[in-house]
Design a protein that fits this description.
Layout (H helix, E strand, L loop, with lengths): L10 E13 L2 E13 L8 E13 L6 E12 L6 E10 L2 H7 L14 E4 L1
Antiparallel strand pairs: 1-2, 2-3, 3-4, 4-5, 5-6
Length: about 120
């Protein structure tokens, strides 16, 4: 058993969203494609394809640019193992770097930097 005195990224999820449906403090985007994989050096090594699902993003009513992403969908491991449902929720504070990625329906090619969003699976 190893003990860590700092956080180490274990899994990385990359998604491409379709057009966002918005209203009030909620945005809903269909996940068009996605990949889930373990970070280099993390054991056990894991890769999977996100088959279908949605990303619900709610904004806190406080006006402090605090958003709460919530992804739900079905993931198929690349090794052919049993598909499973994945749910991810998190908290993110709006920054200029983050807004440039999530505030458009255009593909930017940018990725949310590690640490910009706190999430749990």
């Amino acid at each position: 058993m190893y003990s860590f005195n700092y956080l180490v990224p274990a899994l990385f999820f990359n998604e491409n969203l379709g057009n966002l449906s918005t209203g009030g403090s909620l945005a809903l985007g269909q996940v068009l494609e996605g990949r889930l994989f373990s970070e280099p050096g993390f054991e056990p090594s894991f890769t999977a394809t996100f088959l279908h699902g949605e990303d619900y993003l709610t904004e806190d009513p406080t006006g402090d640019s605090i958003a709460r992403p919530g992804v739900s969908g079905v993931v198929q491991p690349d090794d052919g193992d049993t598909p499973f449902q994945m749910q991810v929720s998190g908290v993110q504070v709006g920054t200029q770097q983050l807004d440039a990625i999530v505030a458009t329906n255009e593909t930017t090619g940018l990725a949310v930097p590690y640490g910009e969003t706190y999430s749990g699976m």
